[in-house]
């Protein structure tokens, strides 16, 4: 199930085309919209003030409520652009944004308004595609869920059971411990007041994937497939499967997952490996954590270069930006994980 995202942040619309969607799927468009509503802007003081309805419209691939097997095209119209906010930085790239790399790759023809195709705005159609993938997976007993695991060093409660994530999806601030969530929100608002931003991490679990999927080879490794989809999400700068970097603090006797039999099925008593051994699923939940960098568009003065003159300069960024994109990125990570799970299954 391949997907192609199109559009720009300040263009007329953004969207996605999904090829290979199984025919006969009773597509729940209300559920697709609910997923989009989880990430849409303008809902919280700790997020960007840009307001978009993010209403999804299906252009093709669905007839009488069911997918036809033809390419599924979905579009989301933009309506609240402030393009003039970006005119002053057209030739002075924002540090750590995609501006400079995109300018070079496009030979100077980059749509600079709001970051163009590099904008986090393009995660909306990714969520729409992921919502379709979630429905395909649900028909096979596979679920995807995530929560904010940390923001600026403030950590959420440890995830004991992936079933807990079902309740988290309905929360406006997707954490397990609401008290920790309030601390995180305060840290975001303090960064916003200081005209700065903060980063964090998101933990995700995919349950129901059977054992034996994938291969140790390049291109078929399950961790590699997930990483390819997850690193395509703007601002993701790191991925850890299972215990991740904590393995460096363990002995083998602590790190190994003992095997056992439960209801006639082979399981592991712990899941430090994150459901993957040798690049192949072992039947346990596939768990991972992604690191999200602080939003690069901040209002503090920053050093840059004028690409017309080659001279160093100072810029100040205006406009509306998330002081922390982690809360709105939770459904985005779930979407990427759902699409990756479909790829692992060969759907």
Give structural notes.
By secondary structure, the chain is of the alpha+beta class. It has a single domain (2-345), classed as Chorismate synthase AroC (Chorismate synthase, AroC fold). Helices cover 25% and strands 24% of the residues. The protein has eight helices and 17 strands. The strands form six sheets. The protein has a five-stranded antiparallel beta sheet. Strands 1-2-6-3 form a four-stranded antiparallel beta sheet, with helices on one face. Strand 16 and strand 17 (311-315) form a beta hairpin. Helix 1 packs across helix 3 and helix 6 crosses helix 8 (326-345). The longest helix has 20 residues, at 326-345. The chain is globular, with a radius of gyration of 21 Å. The termini are close together. The mean pLDDT is 92.
Lateral strand order in the biggest sheet: 8-7-9-15-10
- Residues in β-strands, percent: 15-25%
- Give the CATH topology: Chorismate synthase, AroC fold
Examine the secondary-structure arrangement and name the CATH architecture.
4-Layer Sandwich
Give the distance, in angstroms, between the N- and C-terminal Cα atoms: 6 Å
| Fraction in helix | 25-40%
CATH homologous superfamily title: Chorismate synthase AroC
Order of helices and strands: EEHEEEEHHEEHHEHEHEEEEEEEH
């Amino acid at each position: 199930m391949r997907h192609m995202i199109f559009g720009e942040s300040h263009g007329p619309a953004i969207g996605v085309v999904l090829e290979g969607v199984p025919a006969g799927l009773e597509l729940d468009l209300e559920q697709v919209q609910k997923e989009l509503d989880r990430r849409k802007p303008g809902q919280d003081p700790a997020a960007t003030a840009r307001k978009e309805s993010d209403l999804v419209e299906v252009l093709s691939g669905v007839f009488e409520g069911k997918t036809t097997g033809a390419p599924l095209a979905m579009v989301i119209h933009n309506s609240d652009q402030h393009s003039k906010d970006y005119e002053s930085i057209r030739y002075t790239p924002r540090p750590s944004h995609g501006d400079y790399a995109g300018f070079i790759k496009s030979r100077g023809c980059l749509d600079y308004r709001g970051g163009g195709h590099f904008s986090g705005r393009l995660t909306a159609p990714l969520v729409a595609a992921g919502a379709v993938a979630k429905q395909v997976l649900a028909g096979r007993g596979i679920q995807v869920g995530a929560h904010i695991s940390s923001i600026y060093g403030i950590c959420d409660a440890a995830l004991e059971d992936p079933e807990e994530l079902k309740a988290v999806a309905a929360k406006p601030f997707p954490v397990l411990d609401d008290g920790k969530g309030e601390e995180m929100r305060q840290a975001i608002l303090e960064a916003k007041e200081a005209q700065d931003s903060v980063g964090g991490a998101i933990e995700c679990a995919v349950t129901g994937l059977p054992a034996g999927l994938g291969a140790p080879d390049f291109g078929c490794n399950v961790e590699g497939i997930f990483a390819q989809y997850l690193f395509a999400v703007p601002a993701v700068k790191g991925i850890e499967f299972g215990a991740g970097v904590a393995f460096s603090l363990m002995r083998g006797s602590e790190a190994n997952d003992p095997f056992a039999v439960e209801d006639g099925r082979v399981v592991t008593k712990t899941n430090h490996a994150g459901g993957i051994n040798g690049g192949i699923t072992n039947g346990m939940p596939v768990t991972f954590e992604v690191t999200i960098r602080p939003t690069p568009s901040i209002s503090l003065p920053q050093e840059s270069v004028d690409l017309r003159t080659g001279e160093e300069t100072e810029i100040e960024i205006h406009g509306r930006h998330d002081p922390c994109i982690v809360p709105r990125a939770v459904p985005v990570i779930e979407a990427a994980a759902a699409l990756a799970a479909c790829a692992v299954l060969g759907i």
